[in-house]
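RETRY 2/3 - previous attempt timed out on the joint model. Re-submitting the same 1007-residue input unchanged.
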Amino acid sequence: MLAWCILLVDWAYMQILPETVHLIVGVGEIGLGCYLIYVGSKHWDIKQIIFWCCFSIAAPMLWHGSIAVTDYFGLEMLRAFAARVGLVVVFFTGLGWVIWYTEVRSKWFDQARRVDPDAAELAPSWNPMDPLAPYYGRKSPKLNQSLTGFTGYSIIFLLVCILLSSIDGCTRFYDLPAGGGEQQTVAQVVKVQKIIRKRYVVNPFSAISFDMPEIDDTQLELEEITRHNYKIGMGEGEGAGFASGTSGGKVGFIRLEYSGGDWNQDMGVGGDLNMLIKYFELTQQHVKEKTESVTVSQLGTYDAIRCPPVVYITGQRSISMSNNEIKILQEYINDKHGMIFGDNGGSRHFHNQFVSMMARVMPDVRPVPIPLDDVIHRVPFQIPYLPYVAPHGGKEALGWFKDGRWICYYHPGDIGDAWADGHAGVTAEIWNACYQLGANVINYAHAEHHKWREAQKRKEDEE
Amino acid sequence: MKNRTAICISFAFIMAFGGVADAQRLDEMSLERWGKLREVERYQLNIAERFYKKGESTNANEDWKTAAAEYEKYLTLYERSEAAPYALMKWSLAQVKLRRQNTAIKEGFQSVIDYFPESPEAAASAYYIANTYKSMGRVPDSKKAYQNVLNDFSKHAVAVYAIRDLSQIAADEQDVESQVKLWKRLTFDTTRTKSTRAVCVSASNSLAGHYFRLGDFNQAKSSLQTSYKSNLPYYVYYYCRSPISSLTGNDETRELGVKLSDTVTGFLAESYPAAIAEEKDRDQYKQIAYWIIEVLGNSRRDQKVVDSYKQLIAKIGKDDELLGRLGSFYVSRMLYEQGRSIFRQFENKNEGLASVAGSFRSEKKLAEAVKIYRQLAASDRENEVRWKGEEAAAYREIGMYAEAIAIYRELLKIDAGNTQQWLWSIATAHHNAGQLKEAIGVYRQCENFPENYKQMASCHRSLKEYREALVLYNQIVGGSESQAPWAQLQIGYTYEQMNAKEPAIKAFQSVCKRWPKNSYASAAHAHLQDKYKISVTLGGAKDE
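RETRY 2/3 succeeded.
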């Protein structure tokens, strides 16, 4: 049980243990949970209490196990479903025990009073298990007791949930991948086909000289393929990456969870994971095995320097953020040099929601259309036009520019849909451009963060 | 020969009418310089200008690209010509339109300054650099560039535009102090020319508004005085109202607001004509009195307003307009009886009664209002249609649709000229009353396609007669180009109500395929993805 608790804490807040450990434990929990239910079901007819005991132990195990397994395999939708169902099952299991215990204790009071109605210690007491407690009143005390029990349990359950979700856990870290490279536009692979010049048969006694220089006598039927072989990244180091990175550092795709909308649109396998894989393919920088999501409060727990350079927000409904969450985002952008990558997942409403959210986060910065010849649209891939799936929020990418960098890039046309399997039916040219644009934004954020990390390091050294 | 004549005529035309524009725009070349061009140069530049102007009207990337290419061609062919800096600047402006602002700055505007520092375009380019930085959100760069404009071209109109833009930046940064400083510079220290007058006037208005908000009448007046010499009282009245209202709306600043309104009314009263014997003077007196009353109203001193009206009546006598204003003031303050007693004093009794009825409607006493309208319809046969229409509208306000419809039907008979108007009123009244079948019947007689079809389809859907609704939507798709995407989307929703999933999907997909650039396509796309998890392409349009 202790080991299980440790794993749970690590999974929820610390992420120190390797994921395979969680998978093994998760599978074990599912197996054990199923076995407990099997054992309990054998006693179904004889003593219900044994079944319910087995079920009560099995339920949280199955809950945690299913979440761990689905999380490992990146099945986001299933994970969210398991999490919700599990929460409901655990709530009702606990409620069942509360009802059972209240019933047993109130029966005891009832029976004791029948046996010896004059016993002084059995006078109506303040014990909440006593149905004759004065605060339950004279009219329907049993009903009042049940209602109080239900309400009390629900409130405690809710408070525990809020408490657990508000615990930030330990400091998280995000390291850049080690390496080096240049911030330059990748030259496209160009096939140069030389035109074979026709040789004219001319009068050898003509006054015009038709002697060609030697260079044109070379073999002209050739194809020249030029490739640009430099590394994408920044600084000096082996392989593509960033000089301020670490050997274990990897580029991740972190999505921001928020309330009010469908933040998990096109998430995980077949969705944004495609972008992460493509990022590796395009830049050769090390990437994480799967995409992640964090709540705003979890974003606040990242280290002051080793924090994610960019977080992705998408959806098509509302974005609801508390003042505290806005403060965390402000801190993330201003103090931790972070960047927001917004993507309109499908409505004009989301566009307005996103712009309003940014107006709260950065009230002194106005959104502007990002030029097509800006670094973010040129490095490492030249994006000559803004590729989009559907112009839900217009046809121009908006940006918030502050302190010499883009602190937010907003794509108005569902770029995430173009990354997903099926590519929303758009042509290969467009979804390829969408991948390149995604890579540009992620790379831009990492390069800017690298520069900032280096500056911070220099500052520390000077001090 | 013909060409030469045409050129001469167009040149004369430009000479005659072009001067005005020359003073207004930075992106145009003076006629004098046009005159210095050789014919071939003028020909090439005109081609480029034509595409540039087309780009301005269509804002299509293709036009901007062509214009840029034509300017580039001009530069390649005639790099030493008089219009070379102009062509380079216009090429840069086309790049800005193509959202290549960095290219425009580095390869265009900056080159104009570097290679043609003496040209008139150098000043404009310096300004455009700053302005382009501003549009890119690069505020520090933009501020620096504006400062360069102020240093290098202080006598040029661009310096004035730079100050205006800097004040806008200060507003974005909520730096009121800098903003006021810049407004002052534009208001008091700038020589106003044809091309800078509008900017200075706007700055003086903003500065006056600022001083009014501080309760400083004298400063506000002197700001306005720089722009409005002849009709100053009107502009004082116009710009003081909102600040007075906000000042008196706040407990802490109420006293200041009241004081300011007293100063303003005192100032306005100074411009009363000395005598009011003549009609013209009387009108002027009345006009100024109305301004004073409105200022008093904005300072939330109702008693003073009433007193002022009474003084005005005593001074120039009663008329319907004046009584109407006073009565409406009472009604706006929910003093209905006082208002009605004023309306009853109208010389034009019918209009007075109409105002009385209007006040009853505001008070939600519909029975009394209807009684008056009936009385008016009986006594004023000439305007019977108007009064009956008002009566019907009063019935509709309280949901007595049957009575309203009966009146509309009567109007249909007596006012044949407006049959469509009354039919529409009957149909919407039936619709509002929930009498959907009757509504459909009347909508069918209306001729305002596609609006009537839209309403009929809506009624059919409410009646769960989906087939009929579909037929109507299809007719809209076929008959109204502008409403077709909307109607096709509604077809999808209607199929959904019929639980016909496949045709619904097909209808939504059809919106996406047929009108991929329309906003309804975006809605259909999102709906398909959200509800059916179907991805459908909208073409993934690219601008190039």
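The domain at 254-462 of chain A is CATH 3.40.50.12140 (Rossmann fold). Closing ticket.
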